[in-house]
Amino acid sequence: MNIITNNKWIGQRTIRPDGADKVTGRAAFAADTNMPGMIWGKILRSPHPHARIRSIDTSKAEALPGVKAVVTSRDIVDFPVDKSVMLGIQDMRWMCRNVMARDKALFPGHPVAAVAATTEAIAARACELIEVDYEVLPWSIEIDDALTPDAPVLHEFIKFEGKPSNIAGRLEVKKGDIAEGFKQAEVVIERSFTTRPVHQGYIEPHACLISVAPDNKTTIWSSSQGQFMVRAMTAYLTGIPQSDIRAIPAEIGGGFGGKTIVYLEPLATLLAKKSGRPVKMVMTREEVMRATGPTSGSKSTVKIGAKKDGSIVAAQGTFYLQAGALPGSPIRGAVGCSFSPYDIPNVLSVGFDVLSNRSKVAAYRAPGAPIGAYAVECVMDELAEALKMDPLELRLKNAARQGTKAAFGPVFPRIGYVETLQAARAHPHYSAPLGKLQGRGVASGFWFNAGGESSAQVNITEDGNVVVTTGHPDIGGSRAAIANICAELLGIDYRRVSVLIGDTATIGFSNLTGGSRVLFASAMVVTQSTDKIITTLRERAAKIWEIDPEAVKWENGAAHPASPNAGKFEPLTLAELAAKAPQMGGPIGAGVQLNTEGAEGGFGTHICDVEVDPELGIVRVIRYTAVQDVGRAIHPGYVEGQMQGGVAQGIGWALNEEYIYNRDGKVDNPGFLDYRMPVCSDLPMLDTVMVEVPNPKHPQGVKGVGEVPLVPVMAAVANAIHNALGKRFYSLPMSPPRVLEVIEAKA
Amino acid sequence: MTDIRYLAPSTLNEAVSAFAAGGSAARILAGGTDLLVQMRAGSVKPGLIVDIKKIAEMTAIEQTADGGFRIGAAVPGAVLAEHPRFGEVWPGVLEAVNLIGSTQVQGRASAGGNLCNGSPAGDSVPAMVAAGAIVTVQGPNGRRELPVEKVPAGPGRTNLLPGEILVSFTLPTRPPGSGDAYLRMIPRTEMDIAVVGVGVSLTLKGGVCSAARVGLGAVAPTVLLVEAAAKALIGSKLDDAALNAAANACSAACRPIDDKRGTIVYRTKIAGVLLRRTAAIAARRAREN
After folding, report:
1. Are A235 and A241 spatial neighbours (Cβ–Cβ below 8 Å)?
2. Is there a common fold for B5-119+134-171 and B178-288?
3. A515 in the Ramachandran plot: left (φ > 0), alpha (ψ -120 to 50) or beta?
4. What is this model's ipTM?
């Protein structure tokens, strides 16, 4: 079957199965769930950026009427610091110290104890009654402060070059001979950049409701990007076996990577176990801003050397990324993705994971890649200027293509990067006239994408419709896309396909929603499951017709004789075969579980126009076009939605978003009023161009699309501001005071 | 876990006596768009809430006999916007009031609450100061009037006496050739707090500025009446020299802080930029009247 072209449902903008519930307010998010006898959990958080916990006295809190349970780090399973226990990208050594401070509180907002009580108010009052004896320690927030020789070391057991250090890790990617490469260069540009930590900014705060029965059987309703991740982490941190935990994924109100780890679930589980009552916990926005996410702030230096004809001969990058208070910044994304759009013979890319007294970073949309791309793509713009080349031409001249060996290892198969550059160059936006104080910038970006474990079960109902169950929370329209694929394969109307997200007890292990992997992986298992069902349907028709199954074909939702030679029979529809199922061998359904492979990286090229108010320093994005190689747009509406969402987040990162710290080392703007994410009126229509170069390793040609669109944005905006003002910006955010400062700086 | 008493009296006298009896734990509720947020954040824990929205005088908009306006302290921004005449006479005051919060918030938020919240960044306050609004307050000792710029005492504080409730704003009659305007700087396009706000009201006679008032917000502990800026405008044809002198006067009047919303250097500089832009809009409106 040729499913790449002439599709009926693949490529259609069908109505999403979860759409009506979401627009009418019926969709159940984690905070919407309640249970009889439920009580409320609250967290006592450290007010200090860095403090040794000498003792915790919970007796007064426990004596308060209405308080049913109190937990501290003593209740959480300890993972010794000398032995790594990895779960996905998280190390349980750090997770057990992040959900609750052990010997030290490491950032303001770090949980120190948790209380469950009959009302939220009593729980909050009980938190105030807990007496913590802190020995306040010196602290550092910024990278430079954490790396000075006399900086307070967060963890004595973490060593770099043999000594206790705030550098928790180093990652290097290498290709060719960097020194030799730069010797050949005729033009070299080297610049240093800084970016600030930014929060994922999901609307829905973290929330969960957890019930633990006397026999330890545990049920978790929570908002996450992976119910299996929630189950495993909760099991690790509470000691309850995974088989006793059922994690039910609620609808999710945004994640963007920030819900790929747990904060509340282990604490609520322990409180529920101790109290014997279901425990609900809902973070406030302030808690979200102080203690969850964000992604790293960074400091990087990028050097690129080229011949006068524009061919790049060497590229070097050094990226320092903030991890927060525990190791694990996304240096892999910065180091691995930054130079990947280009075919460069000599590359050296090095990343450092830097600890300081701020909340532990969490994944955020192409973790690390936007930070690296910001530096690289700004240098590319300067290089084009120095070479007097059009910036898209410079990129085309050096573009990665099929057969290019990326510095991080793989040889690219058929990829669509060149096509994105060509589409950008041909787009009317690229040649549209600009007004006074307006400027245009371009930038490209790459993200790895991911495959991994996925499970699906496809069942035919007795009335001949279809129920598909997968194991990935839907954060980008994956249910709609899966319905399109399943309907296409079965040749039926997509409205006959229901797509559900199973809980950990009802569907096989599925890795979390992240890495732009969900549609890639779940389309594979759904396709294989559906193919098995079609085989069954053909076999049953063959039996009825008393012909060979090979002589039956499946088309337009029915079994047909494959050719006139097979005999003349009326088609047997899915509904007819479903009705005959009890007499024909029983229920019709199939499940497939795979560790999927073949997720290929994605590329995007963006064009951004800005207008600057030079007296106030305000930058407004006035036109934006995102071009991306999307593999195959199974549901174009949600592919475009991903592209627009990524761009909107990138514009916020570029222009206004930042944590502002006060003198006490605490975040001073822990809310959406003063943590300035863009609002609708800040953005123009974000135009999208989908370039479809199908992934040769996927049955429908699917490639991850969710993360690439954040990668190029900050550089595109910075390059546009340069084009408008003739001034370069080397730090984010390019907020009005900073823009005014640069405008007024003496040349 | 303390109980909160809620009262919604229908007369001002009842409201004043309840509010005065409630002492420092009592709070006035108009739209609640500051109070409820502060309560949720835990920064205010009132023992008594006196809702003034049931009091007719508090929610009325009257055009006075001499052509001025009296606006009840609890009149929501959306209601003020729908008044057939107010926005024609005081477009600057109206646009300032309508900048408070979102569309939803406008259904509740009032200029009275904006003033009594005591924020130096309240949007309606510089426009009211420029307009020369007089406020009426009533307390246990009766009524009194004072200029709007005398109400703020510092961040989160007012000069109202214990038990006093803000009743209304009175805006004076407008001579022909008058116009007002309000502009604020925010990094975003909406849903933000002023980094600097400037209100200008002026009157032109034969092309010459015969009267002017300038209110400046978010650059000092209270909203400022910048008399030096007004002086620079009065008697001029609002030429560049006069506007620059007024802009410099605004920058000179700034006593800002560095905080999450802006820096001292930035605020001081753009106070002048905004003065020039706001005065230009007010002048254009004056010429059209």
Report:
1. yes
2. no
3. left
4. 0.94
Integer Cα distance of A302 and A371 in angstroms = 12
Residue from the list A617, A674, A681 with its beta carbon closest to the beta carbon of B189:
A681
Nearest residue to A191 (alpha-carbon basis) of A301, A60, A80, A78: A301
Task: Taking residues A416-431, report their average pLDDT.
Answer: 98
A351 vs B: CB within 8 A: no
Residues 6+ apart with CB under 8 A from A194: A297, A298, A299, A300, A730, A731, A732
Q: How far apart are CA A357 and CA A671, in angstroms?
A: 20
From the list B185, B190, B273, the residue facing A679 with the nearest CB is: B190
Nearest Cβ partner of B269 from A125, A676, A740? A740
Rounded Cα distance between A730 and A734, Å, is 9
Distance from the Cα of residue B91 to its chain's centroid: 13
**Is A122's Cβ below 8 Å from some Cβ in B?**
yes
Cα distance between residue A299 and residue A294, in whole Å: 16
Place of tokens 């008493």: B5
Minimal CA separation from A590 to chain B, in Å: 50
Between chains, do A737 and B262 touch, taking CB under 8 Å as contact?
A: yes
Q: What value does the mean pLDDT take over residues B67-79? A: 97
Residue A170, CA distances (Å) to A159, A161, A317, B193 in order: 11, 11, 13, 42
- From chain A residues 591-650, the ones with a CB under 8 A of any chain B CB are 615-618, 620
| Yes or no, beta carbons of A679 and B260 under 8 Å apart | no
**Within an 8 Å CB–CB cutoff, is residue B270 touching chain A?**
yes
Domains of chain A: 19-27+451-596 (3.30.365.10), 33-137+203-254+259-291 (3.90.1170.50), 298-449+600-744 (3.30.365.10)
Domains of chain B: which residue ranges?
A: 5-119+134-171, 178-288
Q: Which CATH architecture has domain B178-288?
A: 2-Layer Sandwich (3.30)
Measure A238 CA to nearest chain B CA, in Å.
32
| pLDDT-based confidence at residue A3 (cuts at 50, 70, 90) | very low
For position A2, what pLDDT does the model report?
A: 36
Average confidence (pLDDT) over B241-252: 98
CA distances from residue A263 to A97, A134, A271, A293, B235 in whole angstroms, order as listed: 11, 22, 14, 10, 65
Query: How many CA atoms, within 13 angstroms, populate the side-chain half-sphere of residue A44?
Result: 25
Task: Identify the closest residue of chain B to A286 by CA–CA distance.
Answer: B41
For chain A, first and last CA: distance in Å?
64
Read off the pLDDT of each residue in B93-105 and give the average, rounded to a whole number. Answer: 95
CATH topology of domain B5-119+134-171: 3.30.465
The reply to whether residue B192 touches residue A668, judged by beta carbons under 8 angstroms, is no
